Amino acid sequence: MKDGTTNVLIVGVGGQGVLLASEMLCQVAKTMGLDAKKSEVHGMSQRGGVVTSHVRFGKKVHSPLIEEGAADVILAFEVAEGLRWVHYLKPGGTIIVNEQRIVPPIATTGKFSYPDKVEDTIKARVPHTTVIDAFEIGKKLGNTKLVNTILLGVLSNDLDLEESKWLEVIEKMAPKGTGEINKKAFIEGRQAAK
Amino acid sequence: MEMLLSGNEAFARGVYEHGGEFASAYPGTPSTEILETLARQCKADVYCEWSINEKVALEVAVGASWGGARAIAAMKHVGVNVAADPLMTLAYTGVGAGLILVSADDPSLHSSQNEQDNRFYGKFASIPVLEPSDSQESLDFVKDAFEISEKFDTPVLFRVTTRIAHSKGLVKIGERRTVEHAGFEKNIAKYVMMPVFAIVRHKMVIERLEALKRFAETTHLNTVEMGDTKVGVISGSVAYQYAKEVLPGASFLKLGLSYPLPMNKIIDFASKVDRLIVVEELEPFYEEQILAVGIPCEGKKFFSNFMELNVERVREGFIEAGALPKSTALPKQAQENVLPRPPALCPGCPHRGLMMALKKCGVNITGDIGCYTLAALPPLETIDTCLCMGASINHAFGIEKAKKTKKKTVAVIGDSTFLHSGITGLANVVYNRGTQTTIIVDNRITAMTGGQDHPGTSKTLMGEPTHAIDLVQLVKALGVEHVRTVDPFDQKTTLAVLKEEIERDAPSVVITTKPCVLFPSKLKPATKFHVLLEKCTACGACFRIGCPAITASSEKNEKGRAKSQIDLELCTGCTLCFQVCPEEAIQELKK
Question: What's the complex ipTM?
């Protein structure tokens, strides 16, 4: 992925902050002078549906969508969503799974059930699996809303983008007055996975 | 300066930079952000409005254009159907200042009721169609669109798709430049489309199309990129990006002006390559026209017209065509079977209360376009139809008049949709002696598209205070004598009112009065509820209201059925679960 295009698929559930995370990633790539594109579907996402954001960056990017089986990294904000999209990962790719479970209301109908031991299933498929409890790290930092930047910190280890650019973008894009704590969260995430 | 912009944001920027002065739209995914961006960033220079529907949006933009302002009207693909009446004759009258109609198509119907290909409207109306392939072109093509519109005296159809509208890319932005135009000038031969003048204008339309065909041959919007000549690819919009990704070395003819086609350029391109392959999303729009002039090409047999394309589908198509070796296919990996997450009505949504009461009424329920359509799915399963904007009232009327259905039929329609195109249907019910009950779920916002104002909300898109239509007075003025308002969170009263009105042998309207929980601002709950597990018998009554805040807990009853729990982060204190619990196991949380 040094010379070509890097493909990052960020997945989760509506309201988790997937879109803001992918926006930040794109901005970091742009700050490094790279071409960048991202694609996602709006509309139904606010109603608790599945959210995916395709991010691609490199010298020149054509398609805004990642080809199935070509993702270098998948960042899953929710475990079952990690499992749903794992087939997008290229052989040898990395998946980062945040240990949060969001059980959809459809599970109460008895017709569907939330899968068991999702992390194990993913690990069995993907040798490079990082499982992280970003919620817990956020709690330690005093704010569970930091999950977003913590996960970007974890993700940053698998991407060829400079730390200083990440911090620059987080400073700029974090809600007013939260720049410092978000940068701290990013660094916590970056170190947690090492 | 370079910015990361979505296609919609880039188009809005283009309107600003290229002297746009008037913009109108009715919200619709994936077009909504065009007007939202313009109103947020450019309202000092560009007048912006949410029009009551797409027909009005186009007609006011036409007025602005005739009045000398560069204008745009934006809508989703099905919105163009609503605006098709003015569009078809607008093709005859032409414009004053430049006029762009944006059609945001939704292949794969991510958030739509069909996946129609609106490039056909260009051919149907004999007007030019521009199709950008990324965010930069979404901005740049606005200049071309305004210039073509003014030079050829024609509206321009600017066709984007979800992957153009909602994908972001880097865009170079510039300064605003304005163009001077005179105001409206009397010219009945151009603007009064009675037969004697319209026939002359139709001749003009035919001549204009010939001129546009000549223009298509030379415009920079259509570009040839010669590479390997074994395969020549003709493509446009986002399909071009997928093809370029998969076959970077091939020869390309990229169409930015996708109607009328540059046939001489295509003939010339075809003569330089061994084989011509057309890659286009949805219908064989280019392919059929190219075949019609006798140029052999292939397309839809490799890239079907079903749902949106993507890189893997385009790769598979080229492999099938023999243009790529099989070995280039990425190894297919098994997809895991994970439970679905269908979108659901929000916790605290006022539609839930109405649907719970309606479910007990034993009626057919014709539905409309809006969040309430989600109640068609389990566990509520109340809505029985959904066709297009404003149709619910008319469907209920038709079912009643057909006299074959024993159960009564009621119509459910939202406030924004009722104002869009429901009023005429209700007038028709009264006029033609229908007896149905029409329920207006008035949540005081256009919710499904993300919370836009409308003529009932007392605020314009540019943030000015304005008159709010009083729905009760409005429906009374149409001749509906029985009009009731109900609080849908009060189940007992709502059910009683519904039963009374459904039984009535005269047209009636029931209006629910509780606002959307998300828009214009997220509701701050005054109270919340929790489950007393020792009282809960796991009967499942609260599960059946389909509230995302209520899930199965790890506690089980003696039969092994899960008791319920309420997510306090999500609970809005709407009380509906409290009202359905037969065991009084759901109680208000003490502060």
Answer: 0.95
